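hey so i finally got around to running the thing on that chain from the lab meeting. sorry it took forever, my laptop kept dying and i had to restart like 3 times. anyway pasting the input first so we r on the same page abt which one it is
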Amino acid sequence: MDELNAPYHAHIYYDAATRAQALALRQRLLDAKDSGAIPELFFVGELGEHAVGPHPLPEYEIHYSEAMLPAVIALLEASGLRALVHPLTDDDVADHTTLAHWIGEPLPLKLETLDPPGVNQGVARFGKSAF
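ok and heres what got predicted. didnt touch it at all, straight out
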C-alpha cells in the first residue's frame, strides 16, 4: 500500500449523554461513504455498549486511507465528539500514543491490552471489522 493509501483508524468515543451525537456522526460517515464524498472510507463500525480493549469508554471505529484524513478529521472535529485518529502500523502501542492525534480531550488508554510490536492484529482487520 503506498503512503497515501496507508491504513488509518479513528476511534469515536461517547457516553450516554453523547450517544445521539455519535449515532448522527455515524450516519454522516455512512452517507459520505455511500455518496463517494469520502471514497476510501472502508469501514464504519457499530456503536458498542461497553469499553473494549484499550478504550476506557464505549467507541466505534472507522477505517480509511491516509488520503481521506483531511475529510475525516473535518467531520470528527465538527461533531463535537472525542476521537483518537491514528495510522495502522505494525506497532499498536505507537499507533495509539506517539503516532496518534486526539480530537477533544485525550483519554487514558489501557496500553497493556495492545498488541506487541510486529503483531498488530488491527492490520488483519483493516476495512473488515472492529474489535
